[in-house]
Amino acid sequence: GLTEKLNATFKKLRGKGRLTENDVREAMREVRLALLEADVGYKVVKDFVATVTERAVGSDVLDSLTPAQQVIKIVNEELTKLMGGGTARLSMANSGPTVVMMVGLQGAGKTTTTAKLAGLMRRQLGKRPLLAACDVYRPAAIEQLKVVGGQLDLPVFEQGQGDPVQIAENAIRHARDHGSDMVFLDTAGRLHVDESLMDELKRMKAAVHPNEILLVVDAMTGQDAVNAATAFDEALGIDGVVLTKLDGDARGGAALSIRASTGKPIKFVGTGEKLDMIEPFHPDRMASRILGMGDMLSFIEKAQQTYDENQAAKLEEKLRKNRLTLQDYYEQLQQLRNMGDLSQIASMMPGALGRQMAGATIDDKALAHTEAIILSMTPLERENPQILNASRKKRIAAGCGLEVVDVNRLLKQFDMMQQLTKQMTRGRLSKMGGGGLG
Ligand code: GDP
Ligand code: MG
Questions:
Q1: Could you say which residues bind GTP here (predicted)?
Q2: Domain spans of the chain?
Q3: What residues does 8 pair with on adjacent strands?
Q4: pLDDT digits (tens, 9 = 90+) for 72-116
Q5: Is the whole-model pTM more than 0.80?
Q6: Mutate which of 103, 111, 112 to test ligand 1's pocket (most atoms within 8 Å of Cβ)?
Q7: Other residues' Cβ atoms within 10 Å of the Cβ of residue 383
Q8: Which ligand is nearest to the CA of 217?
Q9: Domain 299-434 belongs to what topology?
Q10: Cα(first)–Cα(last) distance of the chain, in Å?
Q11: 111 lines ligand 1 (CB under 6 A)
Q12: Mean pLDDT across 146-155
């Protein structure tokens, strides 16, 4: 992943307090590659790298972060900003039914997304949507909308293969008369943008004055999706984009390029064929995806949020007095567990103890053993591990269904941790909890 690459890049500058232009330039080479691999357009990458470089050069490396994390933090923030920052909503009509026109190329996912989105609006906002079959050129398209509508128990308005503009108008009238407060118009697509399609969509737009024109694009098509977005926006004007098929292996760079080249927000993403697989678009998650880091950034934040400052202070106090007990160790492990995926989180914890724990508790199973052993000890034993003689160890092992060697392994780990923590008690631990990402 990008973090590893950047870590390698930064190996030589550990301990530096401030990022120089050269450091950043080297890091940006990796970031550039990651973006291009994610299918972000060349021009967008170039502008982006310039922005980040300007911000990163001369910035102080936070004590709680490595230089690599610092750069990733800036890159992530700027990517998120570029994609709109927060989650965009659909604009709703003040009176009468809200009209949402779904447009896009053939196969992008319009019909599926029409049903998904209507279902989401009903689920989340209690709306009563109507679906309208305005893709009249293939009888199969009408049938498909009826099928997906039926699966979600949503009403579908259709008038066979008539004039799509008239059907759209009739659907809105029908919605008004039957208490539907949203109308989703499933329109026709073509393999390529062409004039007759755009003419039809423009006529429809002029006739029904939609509250939203949503362009549906297939994330897997990368630059083609970007071109489609530009073409539809220029010819028709769009209000937002739905990016489908994100469950595929597309890195999602299209999201960034679409936003950068049209200025229009991605509003929703499709994440699977099933009809509930649609979500509001989260720029921060997409940023992580583009950088190829999974949810690592949320792990960094989570680790810092979950870690309780008071407990950090108490722990620090104990460490100063060199009185770290197995009970403390147990509580630390519990906190790590509360955060979710342990090995990832522990290694991301911006503190030396986190990194040590990552080494000591590589997986959940090892952690479960460690916990079971500590729980089998008496409070006195937890506070004073030195009293653990052979017979006590045997009793503990039997109590948790493990072997004496397991108990010994834990004690050795704990001992190692104590040795290491002794070396870092001079003020460093306080950064673990209170540091924050800045
Ligand atoms: P339209 O031609 O634009 O109306 O596209 P359709 O709605 O017919 O979708 C084309 C194909 O893409 C269908 O097989 C859908 O099941 C599939 N599809 C749509 N959205 C998604 C998605 O988010 N994930 C996956 N895996 N498939 C999708
Ligand atoms: Mg369709």
A1: 104-111, 186-190, 244-247
A2: 2-82, 98-284, 299-434
A3: none
A4: 888 888 989 989 888 888 999 999 999 999 999 999 999 999 999
A5: no
A6: 112
A7: 14
A8: 1
A9: 434 Repressor (Amino-terminal Domain) (1.10.260)
A10: 24
A11: yes
A12: 97
**What is the predicted pLDDT for the residue at 144?**
96
Nearest to 121 by CA among 87, 145, 77, 154: 154
Write the CATH number of the domain with boundaries 98-284.
3.40.50.300
- In degrees and rounded to multiples of 5, residue 194 shows phi and psi of -135, 165
Residue 198: pLDDT band by 50, 70, 90 thresholds? Answer: very high
105 touches 190 (CB < 8 A): yes
Q: Is 222 a pocket residue for ligand 1 (Cβ < 6 Å)?
A: no
Strands 278-280 and 266-270: antiparallel
- Residue 280 beta carbon below 6 angstroms from any ligand 1 atom: no
Write down the mean pLDDT value for the chain: 82
> Shortest CA distance to 253 belongs to which of 280, 221, 281?
221
Looking up tokens 């199973």 gives: 365
Q: Give the pLDDT score at 75.
A: 87
Ligand with minimal distance to 115 CA: 1
pLDDT greater than 70 at residue 304: no
Is the beta carbon of 67 within 6 A of some atom in ligand 1?
A: no
Binding residues for GTP: 104-111, 186-190, 244-247
Identify which of 9-18, 24-33, 66-75, 96-105 has the greatest average pLDDT: 96-105
Please enumerate, by residue number, every residue annotated as part of a binding site.
104-111, 186-190, 244-247
Q: Which atom of ligand 1 has the smallest separation from the CA of 135?
A: 4
Question: Ligand 2 centre and the CA of 438: distance in Å?
Answer: 47
C-beta 271 within 6 A of ligand 1: yes
Q: Which pLDDT band holds residue 288 (cuts at 50, 70, 90)?
A: confident
From the CA of 279, which ligand is nearest?
1
